Amino acid sequence: MKDKSAQLPQHNITNQDWEAKVDALNALAWTTLQTDRSQARQQSEEAYQLAQAQDVPYQRGLAESARTLARIYLYDGLLDQALVYALEAEALLTEINYMTPMPQVLHTIASGYRMLGNLSESLQYYLRQVAVSDEIGDSEGRGLALLGMGSVYIDNGDYAQALAHTEQSLAIFTEIGLAYWSALALNNMSYIYLLMGDHAQAIELGNACLERCRLVSNPRVTIIASHTMAEVYLDMEDTDRALTYLQAAVGLAQEANFRDMEIEGLKLSGDIYRRQRQMEKATMLLTQAVTLAEATNHRKFLYESHHLLAEAYKTKGDFARALHHFEQYHTIREVVLGDEGARRLKTLEVLQQTEVARKEAALYASLYEEEQARRLLAETLYQVSVALSGTLELNAVLSQILEQLSLLVPHDRASLLLLEGDHLEFVAMRGFPDDDRVSRERLPLDAARPDDVFLRIYDSKRPLALEHLAAYPGWKQVADLPIPEAWLGVPLLRHDKVIGMLSLARETAVPYAEESITVAMAFAAQAAIALENARLYAYARRFNEQLEYEVRNRTEALREAYEQLERLDRAKTDFITVTAHELRTPITVLKGYAQLLSKDELIVASAHHARLLTSMVNGANRLHKIVNTMLLMVKIDNRELRPFLEPVLIAEVMGKVVASLVTDLELRHLTLTVQKLETLPEILADSELLPVVFESILVNAIKYTPDGGQIVVDGRFWNESPAADLPPDAVEIVVHDTGIGIATEALELIFTKFYQTGDVALHSSGKTRFKAGGPGLGLAIARGIMDAHRGRIWAESPGYDETKLPGSSFHIVLPLGSR
Ligand code: ADP
Description:
Layout: H1 4-32, H2 37-53, H3 59-76, H4 79-96, H5 102-116, H6 119-136, H7 139-156, H8 159-176, H9 179-195, H10 199-213, H11 220-235, H12 239-256, H13 259-275, H14 279-295, H15 299-316, H16 319-389, H17 394-408, E1 413-420, E2 423-430, E3 442-444, H18 453-460, E4 464-466, E5 486-494, E6 497-506, H19 514-598, H20 601-605, H21 607-637, E7 646-648, H22 650-660, H23 662-667, E8 671-674, E9 683-685, H24 689-703, E10 710-718, E11 730-737, H25 778-788, E12 792-796, E13 808-815
Parallel strand pairs: 8-10
Antiparallel strand pairs: 1-2, 1-6, 2-3, 4-5, 5-6, 7-9, 10-11, 11-13, 12-13
Helix pairs in contact: 1-2, 1-3, 2-3, 3-4, 3-5, 4-5, 5-6, 5-7, 6-7, 7-8, 7-9, 8-9, 9-10, 9-11, 10-11, 11-12, 11-13, 12-13, 13-14, 13-15, 14-15, 15-16, 16-17, 16-19, 17-19, 19-21, 21-25, 22-24, 24-25
The protein binds adenosine-5'-diphosphate.
């Protein structure tokens, strides 16, 4: 400690002069501080420099200047500078053992540390302030220390201690009549009650505080109290009132140039706008807070403002800016708080992250629930559609519809009505009494009753939900049933036409919500499809049944007709058989006697009689042939024809048949050429039936070829079948003619019995006349014989034309041996 008094003789007058000046400046600054800090700073800085500029610095002056500057910087929010000056002041005061301003200096240091978040250091200084104040009997100092400690405990979260210390300070300030500080104590108590969630108490104390502020010229405490009130109302979610207090506070702070207070006001109101999602205002105010905190180097407010601004950008969705401000927040905060602070920050961050995660989880949970609910609905609707399409029975579908509906849209009673002409008919019901009270009801869609609920749905094609049905004029109540409270009618639409309606009723006064109506509509769409399918199915089934019934009837009629025909056919065959057999005996007798007569001398002598007899014999032979043909046909028809197989040479058989027809060929001036038949191998066939086939084909060729035409008989054989439907080893005989040809559609028909029986009158007149009619059995018998031989017979012709004469060819294929 320097001995100031020892210097005094040398610099007595001068010293006194500048020391006085320093003292005066300091005293002036300490007062100006409350009203104009920049002027106060000028004054204290001048005092500080003056005190230092002397050979021996004026320590008390220095200390007091430093004390004032520290307080100024504290108010300015320049905490580190405030601390530098305050700590210097403390050292100087201790050095010169000048304790009077000590409590204020210690208070500034403690406040600085508290604002920086160094609570333990802060508490140490407040405790020292209490001790020093007590030592020098400074009640104000003690009160301020207790008030400060209250604040530290607030920051610490120990509200009981906070309240106790603040109350003590209030008592002291009230006692000594310090309005400013007692107002501040009241404010702090209000704040503590806010933190404890007691809004009523907080507001009461807040008002008491503002009341006391009127006695104070310094607006600082008014601003602080306004902030507290704003926070209380904010906590009560009365953001409008909160903003009103804050706007007033910011205005006052600007006026009084309390930049720390201004920042605080900007921060608070910016954050309120953020919560209200007024992002433009929020980011604007918070940016102002950041700028101001930067300009005043108020680092606590700076990182806090960065943090709020980051949150605002995050809410806005501007993540790049949000990230930038979060980084700023962390960096500045870490520097300010040091190691201890960083640790606390980490914990806080973890807590915050947990909180974010918890919030996000809650959000996802609600989204998930929504999603689940939607999925459940979709699934139920799907199940419903499956259930509805599971059956096509109309009655089952009707009851299914109401059954499934009850799963989706809760109701006490439901009915399904279908449109029949100009009225609705109840076709299914649920929750109604068992009797047919309702089912007998028919609801006419009567234009004369426009209030009618069903008519309204019919016209609008939209669902209709009603509350308090009893009050609705258009409601027609079924006798004896309680009137439902809430009702929902949904149209069943198919191709934009109302086909029916669903009617749902609740007896409790819970109206059908929008959601239920949407679900009911989705359901109705499914139900309408199911209904239409069932109706179509019912129609198709009825139609089928009708069809089946008719087919059965006709089949029966056909069967009867067939049996009748079969009986007739059998009778005819029987008749033919009997007749043929009966005819054979007299023909044989006739032929026998003709034989005898031909040898009679008298006949032989007379050429005339001999000719007559020849005609008789010919006729008898033809008759015999016809009878044989008839018997053959009957055998074929009865599938009784069994060929007797023996080695046969085609050329030989054909030779005989041709020889028997020479006269006819000559008569008709026809040329018949037989070629290559000798090259054919021997085959196994019936030597009596085969000529029948050949004769029938050749006779037809003669009959259907005009005079002067040509007939060619050709033959070939193969070991490998030329076509899939032909036997592998076979001979083929083809008879070509240059006749009238056969119409394509007749090519197969000609092989059926009696296909074309010519004029009966012509029958007797020569079997080989051009187009002479026959009994129409020739080809049918030929095919029967070929079938019996496992051979094939068919005709080919370009067509039927009596002038162009396209000709025909008949193919006969016989397997070499019967296998
Ligand atoms: P039909 O006794 O009428 O000759 P067929 O069974 O022998 O009976 O013949 C059936 C029908 O086939 C004949 O009426 C005739 O119209 C037609 N037909 C048969 N052979 C020939 C042919 N070579 N040229 C044209 N038509 C023929």
